[in-house]
Design brief:
21% strand, 7 strands, 4 helices, elongated, alpha/beta, single chain, 252 residues, seven-stranded mixed beta sheet
Length: 252
């Protein structure tokens, strides 16, 4: 009796090919992200080391469409120390708290206000700075302009009525603060708007922006290599079990 002809595992091969394409695609995407992240880190490092530019000049460049994300500026805000504020939920160094966001009146060809992220205060501190809308004391600020990060499917909805915010929605925040014509970027304060209130900690940028894209790329490529190895081993074992074809037996 002759052996049954060997059947090539077409279905398994298609599944492996699709999986391999996905894994290699993910690895390549991570390498592209690595290039983007390295460029971002270089830009952030350069801008962090640069002297702050005039806030008025920055606003005019912003109105002209310039990309000023991560740009340091110096700006004078009237009444910021006791300005009304919104509380944006945040976590810093494992501690939950809020970032206080106020509006700074500005004069540019296009914008009338700029939102200021004044800093972080942990939830254990129940006190808040006083609010006095008639305070016209000028406060000189140095900070970093940032694009508001978009929310995702897991971000809770902002609750303007309860003054509880989870996403920097500039138009909605400006409306809640009664601020007209807001600039699209937010100024993350480097200097304190309330020097006498130490609980408020200006925190413009994370201390370390993670860059693990090369590690992720190697992981995806490693999984792709492992998949090829397992597939090849399965094919080898399958053909070994079926034995040699008729006429291929060794002569005794």
């Amino acid at each position: 009796m002759t052996d049954a002809p060997r059947r090539f595992p077409i279905g398994l091969t298609i599944a492996v090919a699709v999986s391999l394409t996905i894994l290699i695609g993910l690895g390549t995407w991570q390498l592209q992200r690595l290039s983007w992240k390295e460029g971002l880190l270089a830009r952030v490092a350069a801008l962090q080391a640069a002297a702050p530019i005039s806030g008025d000049a920055a606003l005019e460049r912003m109105a002209a469409g310039a990309d000023l994300d991560f740009t340091r500026i110096r700006l004078t805000c009237v009444g910021l120390t006791s300005a009304p504020y919104l509380e944006l939920f945040s976590v810093r160094e494992g501690k939950a708290g809020s970032r206080l966001v106020s509006a700074c009146p500005v004069a540019s060809s296009r914008y009338k206000t700029l939102l200021i992220d004044r800093g972080f205060v942990i939830d254990e501190v129940s006190a808040r700075p006083p609010v006095n809308v008639s305070d016209l004391t000028p406060v000189e600020m140095v900070g970093v302009l940032r694009k508001p990060e978009p929310g995702n499917l897991f971000s809770p909805a902002n609750d303007a009525a309860a003054n509880r915010w989870y996403v920097r929605d500039v138009p909605a925040m400006a409306k809640a603060l009664k601020a007209d014509a807001p600039a699209p970027l937010v100024l993350m304060a480097e200097t304190s708007s309330n020097p006498d209130w130490k609980a408020l900690d200006p925190a413009p940028l994370p201390a370390d922006i993670p860059n693990r894209h090369l590690e992720y790329a190697l992981t995806w490529y490693g999984l792709a290599a492992a998949l090829v190895g397992v597939y090849a081993a399965m094919l080898w074992r399958n053909f070994r079990r079926q034995g040699p074809r008729p006429g291929e037996e060794r002569k005794s």
